[in-house]
Amino acid sequence: MMDSSSGHGITALTAADAARMAQLHLDAFPPGESWDARQFSDLLAQDSVIASGLVQAGKLVSFILIQIAADQAEILTLATAPGKRRSGLAGTLLSQVEATLAQRGISIWLLDVAADNAPGLKLYARNGFSTDGRRRDYYQRVEGKRVDAILMSKRMARQGIT
């Protein structure tokens, strides 16, 4: 699908895109915290996992990986190329994917984000996610530092239901 308002190609991603996703994840996350192509491929082999990406000039610049269970969708990861951040790409991606999920009957999005990820926290808050709680010391950084996970959610209006 193409988002004509921004000119970005939004496309479904599959296991065949795992290497592109892994490279972008490596660029977007701190050393030692990115996922490799095998992890993406294994996740995308599951029927419950879907991914969508934004493409500019043939290059994957942002993607989201989601796991669906019943009427819930959990954001497993979202990555945007460092040079493309704060340009609205992740918000566009969230908006487009939300519309698709609503059509599938999803009623709530769930996610966790590292407490020290201020841009991520702002992105999700700007896009209607609320803070639900905290998991103490959930993430472990390469240098050994422990970081809390902030639990967030967003209720969605189901297609045809207001």
Structure write-up:
- 24% of the residues are buried.
- By secondary structure, this protein is of the alpha+beta class.
- Strand 5 (72-80), helix 3 and strand 6 (108-114) form a beta-alpha-beta unit.
- The chain has an 8-stranded mixed sheet with strand order 1-2-3-4-5-6-8-7.
- The protein contains 4 helices and 8 strands.
- Residues 1-7 have low confidence and may be disordered.
- 27% of the residues lie in helices and 40% in strands.
Topology:
Elements: E1 2-3, E2 8-13, H1 18-28, H2 37-44, E3 49-56, E4 59-69, E5 72-80, H3 89-103, E6 108-114, H4 118-126, E7 130-140, E8 146-155
Parallel strand pairs: 5-6
Antiparallel strand pairs: 1-2, 2-3, 3-4, 4-5, 6-8, 7-8
Helix pairs in contact: 1-2
Descriptors for this entry?
162 residues, alpha+beta, 8-stranded mixed beta sheet, 8 strands, 27% helix, 40% strand
